[in-house]
Design brief:
The protein is α/β, with parallel strands linked by helices and 395 residues long. It has 3 domains: 181 residues, Nucleotidyltransferase, domain 5 (2-Layer Sandwich); 91 residues, HRDC domain (DNA polymerase, domain 1); 85 residues, HRDC domain (DNA polymerase, domain 1, Orthogonal Bundle). The chain has 20 helices and 6 strands. β3 and β4 form a beta hairpin. α9 packs antiparallel against α14 and α19 packs across α20. The N and C termini lie far apart (60 Å).
């Protein structure tokens, strides 16, 4: 199994160790490789429980931010640098919570997509471009536990050890394909994206919703979801560990009338659920007494086009436009060796085809693309071909 070249460094978990690490990183040169480890399947909050860094001349640094009183000195050194990350959108929000925000980024996953590489996972890229076999297996672990196992720390150190040579290899491929400018635009979009926008009615994403067919059942799902979310927040536990989605759906369908009936349901008869049975029953009863006028609609309310399976019935001409647009974009994507979703966001294409601008020309299409967040390189490749496709599509 591949091991870190200089071994696994001790974890930085004290003010003195942090000062020493900051000094070492400050003496390094070039960009810094950055990664984090979270506890997504175990904790409610998406905070970083380990920060891994590597810079030429400084080696690898592993920082435990939980026991430290701020990272402002580290931010002074790191924030002006270029950061090299893999799937940066996953790491930047939790790093921003620590006051760490880069001036420039290079995202090796996104760069690999733009370069047309078929496999863009870190291990696959390292093997294909650098010839190393990177052992995976601890990314979904509970990184909030202490102490962290030695094999986990080896995994964490390797994740940043190979990022800098990987950046060099992918950057060369992008340059050879004339896509370096595209990558810069994409990286800046990710860097400036900010935290994810909260979803409207996130409870509608409960697994198993296809089994819910009545507004009253839907109300029960909603009330149980919110009750679970409040408990999960308070206890900093992943919601699915407080109450599985399957149990919420089961209770909504069964509509148990009292504690005994609820405790007879799968999952609810467990020790953990018994402690909160009054909370779950109160949520079910709250949904039961809602007036009909306050029941949620079975169909989610929201702007934008309807689901694709309704286009043909709702607006056949729009369905034809979408087919034409997809065919045009597929040809462009294949020509430039790009994943279709990286050429242009699917939602932008759907909105354009559902309600095209008037007059329908390249300039108007470009305005719509820009309003939807398309980057200049995307507009240059797609605005004119899309305008042609939409105007010549059969009526």
């Amino acid at each position: 199994m591949l091991e870190p070249a200089a071994g696994v460094p001790p974890i930085v978990a004290s003010a003195g160790a942090l000062d020493a690490a900051v000094a070492v990183l400050g003496r390094g040169t070039g960009p810094v490789a950055v990664d984090t480890e979270r506890a997504s399947g175990y904790r409610y909050w998406q905070r970083a429980y380990l920060v891994q860094l590597r810079r030429e001349g400084a080696g690898t640094v592993l920082i435990d931010p939980i026991g430290l009183d701020g990272l402002s000195e580290l931010a002074d050194v790191l924030n002006p640098l270029e950061w090299v990350l893999h799937a940066a959108s996953q790491d930047l929000p939790c790093l921003a919570e620590l006051g760490l925000a880069p001036a420039v980024i290079f995202d090796t996953e996104l760069a690999a997509r733009l370069a047309g590489l078929e496999r863009v996972g870190l291990a696959a890229l390292v093997e294909e471009l650098l010839g190393y076999h990177l052992q995976k297996g601890h990314g979904a672990a509970d990184w909030s536990r202490r102490p962290l196992p030695a094999e986990w720390l080896t995994y964490a150190a390797l994740d940043v050890e190979l990022l800098l040579p990987l950046r060099t290899a992918i950057a060369a491929e992008l340059d050879a394909q004339g896509k370096s400018g595209w990558a810069v635009e994409e990286f800046e979009t990710v860097r400036n994206a900010g935290p994810p926008v909260p979803r409207t009615d996130p409870w509608r994403r409960t697994s198993g919703m296809h089994r819910i067919h009545k507004p009253r059942e839907l109300a029960t799902v909603r009330e149980l979801w919110h009750a679970r979310d409040q408990l999960a927040r308070q206890r900093d536990i992943a919601p699915g560990r407080v109450l599985p989605d399957a149990a919420i759906i089961d209770a909504a369908l069964a509509d148990p009338p009292d504690e005994a009936a609820l405790l007879s349901r799968p999952v609810f008869n467990g020790r953990s659920q018994r402690r909160h049975v009054k909370t779950w029953l109160a949520a079910i009863q709250a949904a039961r007494v809602l007036p009909a006028s306050e029941l949620p609609s079975l169909r989610a309310q929201g702007g934008g086009p309807p689901p694709l399976n309704r286009w043909q019935d709702r607006d056949p001409a729009a369905a034809v436009r979408l087919t034409a647009a997809r065919a045009t974009l597929t040809k462009i994507a294949e020509h430039y060796r790009l994943p279709l979703q990286n050429l242009l966001a699917p939602d932008v294409v759907r909105r354009l085809c559902w309600e095209p601008p008037e007059p329908l020309d390249a300039a108007a299409v470009q305005r719509e693309l820009v309003a939807g967040g398309a980057r200049p390189w995307q507009c240059e490749l797609t605005a004119h071909p899309l305008a042609t496709a939409l105007t010549t599509a059969p009526k």
